[in-house]
Amino acid sequence: MKIGLCQINPIIGKIDYNKSKILSGYKKGIEQGVDLVILPELALCGYPPQDLVEKEEFRSAVINATIEIAEQTKNVGLIFGTISEEFDNIGTGVYNSAVLCFDGKIQFVQHKTLLPNYDVFDEVRYFESAKDVHIFKFKNEKLGISICEDIWNDADYWKQRLYEKDPVQRLVDKGSTVLINISASPYHYGRRAERTEMLSVLTKTNQLPLAYVSCVGGQTDLVFDGASLCLDAKGNLVKIGKYFQEDFFIFDTDEKYKKIKTIEGSYGEEILNALVLGLKDYATKSGFKKALVGLSGGIDSAIVTYIAVQAFGKENVHVVMMPSEFSSLGSIKDSEKLIENLGITSETISIQSVFEEFKKVLAPSFNQRKNDVTEENIQSRIRGVLLMALSNKFGYLLCTTGNKSEMAVGYATLYGDMNGAVGVIADIYKTEVYDLANYINRNEEIIPQEIIAKAPSAELSPNQKDEDSLPPYEVLDKILELYLEEYKEFEAISEIIGDQKLVIRILNLVDRNEFKRNQAAPALRVTKKAFGYGRRFPIVQGWRT
User: Fold this and answer.
1) Per mean pLDDT, which range of 242-246, 368-372, 476-480, 521-525 is the poorest?
2) Is the pLDDT score of 30 beyond 90?
3) What integer is the mean pLDDT of 415-442?
4) Residue 459 pLDDT level (bands cut at 50, 70, 90)
C-alpha cells in the first residue's frame, strides 16, 4: 500500500483554513498515485482546541466541515483527525476521532481510546474514551488506526504503563496488517528519539509496518516538530518527515528502504529551530508582523533578538536600549555591535530622568528608608512601560527576555522585564543560553564575544552581579533541573549538591515565586517540564515553610 503522509501546520479554530490544508494534501496524494493519505490528530480544528470543544457551535462547524471534506473524496482513501459526537445518557458524548473517507463519504470512524491527563494534556476534560477499536479492510490491507496516545502504552517498551488498555495491541490481535497512528505530540528535546525507540520496539515485536503522521507548528506555547515516522515490520525507521516544516512524502509498505539512523540534530540546532518556529507561528497566527525587544547588553536579550530576526526577518525587528546611571558603557557598546551584526533598527531612550522623578514623587512616602530592591524594580518597570507603549503604538509583538533560571527563582520583575506577549527563552536555563550563543556563533561571530564573556548582571545597582545573590548558574541550574523536571525533593537534591542551606534557599525561592509565573507570558516549551499549564502548583501553600 502506498501511503501519503501529510504533516500540516493548522491554526486552532480556523476550520476553513485547515480544511483547505487537508484537501490540498489529499489532492497531492492523488496526483502522486497513493492509495491512502493520512493527516494528524485533530487536523481539522487544530490541537489542542481546549475549551473551544465545549462550544456547541464550534463542534457543529467541525463536524459539518468533516462531511464536506468526505464529499470531495474519490477512490483514494483519506484519514484525518476531527471531532465527532455520539450522545447517550453518560459522559460528554464528544470524541477525538480519526475518520476514513473515500467515494464521497465517511466510511469508518475510530475514536481515541487513551486520553492523556498529565503535563500539558487535559483530554479527559473534553472527550469520551472509545468503547472499542476495530480494523478496517481497505485495498487488500487491514488497517489498524489509532490516535496519538493510543500507541504510547506498549507493554514491551514501558516498564510501568499509564493505562490498563492497550488499543494498538487489540488492533494487532484483530488481524491488522498495517498500523496507522495520527498524532499531535508536542516537542521537547529528546522526544523524537524516545518516540522512535518506542515505535521501533512496537513494530518489531508485532512484525507490522507503521505510518505515524505528526502535526507541525507552534500553538501558543507548544511546539510540534513534524518528523512523521514510518517503520518497517522489522522495527527499522525507513522514512522521516522534515523537522519543524510542513511536508508530504510517500511510504510504500511493499518497498524495501534503507534504515535511517540520524533522527535528531545537536542541542543547539534543535532548540534554535524549535524556538524560531514557536515565535514565528505565535506572531503569524496572532496577526503580528514586527517584533520588539528591550536590548540590555546581556546575553538573554541578545539571544532573543537573534531568534526574533530568524522568525520575523531583520527588517521587522526593532530593539530599544534603555540605559540608566547603572548601565555600563560596555553594555551599550556590546548592544550596538549586535545591532550592527544583525542589521536591525534601534533607538535609545534613557530612563534616568524618569527614574529620578519616580524617586522624587515617592520620597515622602518612603520616609528616608534605604534603597533596596524596590528602586531596582522601579527601573525595570519604567522600561516595561516604555516597551509596552511602543508595542501599543506601532503594533509590535513584545518579546520577553527572561530565561528559565530567572523565572524559577523570581529574578524577573512583574510589570517590568516580564512585560510582553511571549517568553521566547523562558524554558531555557541560563547555562543553556550560553550553549545556544556558542551554536549561533559556530561559523562566525554574531553574538558579540564580549556579551558571552561578561559576568551576568541586571545592572540595577552599582557593580551588581547575579552571583552576588545567586550561586553560579552551573550549580543553580542543576538544582532547578532536579527540582522542576525530576521532581526530586530537598533531601535527595542536597545529597547531590552537598549544600543543604543553599538547596533549601533555592527551593523556597522557586515556591514563593509561583505567583509571578502565573502572570507571566506563555513560555515556548522545549523541555519535558516547562512553566505554564503543564506545571500546576498552588500559589498559596504551606509545603516546606
Assistant:
1) 368-372
2) yes
3) 96
4) low
For residue 140, the tally of other CB atoms under 10 A from its CB is 8
**Which of 85-94, 104-113, 307-316 bottoms out in mean pLDDT, i.e. has the lowest?**
85-94
Is residue 112 annotated as a catalytic residue, yes or no?
yes
Grid coordinates in use for 382? 519604567
525: closest CA among 301, 245, 223, 283?
A: 223
What are the percentages of helix, strand and coil residues in the chain, rounded to 5?
Answer: 40, 20, 40
Q: Which of 10-24, 87-101, 349-363, 378-392 is predicted least confidently?
A: 87-101
Alpha helices in 343-462 (DSSP H): 352-366, 373-394, 404-409, 430-440, 449-453
What gap in Å lies between CA 75 and CA 355, rounded to an integer? 71
Q: Is 21 a catalytic residue?
A: no
Q: What is the mean pLDDT of residues 276-291?
A: 98
> Regarding beta strands 178-183 and 141-147, do their DSSP bridges make them parallel or antiparallel, or are they unpaired?
parallel
Q: Is 90 exceeded by the pLDDT of residue 92? A: no
Q: Is the dihedral of CA 296, 297, 298, 299 positive or negative?
A: positive
Total count of residues recorded for the chain: 545
Residue in 2, 19, 112, 404 annotated catalytic: 112
6, 45, 101, 148: the active-site residue: 148
| 392 CB-contact burial (10 Å; exposed 0-12 / middle 13-18 / buried 19+) | exposed
Q: Three cell numbers at 189? A: 528535546
**CA nearest to 328, candidates 464, 439, 234, 488:** 464
Known catalytic membership, residue 6:
no
Q: Which of 6, 21, 41, 406 is catalytic?
A: 41
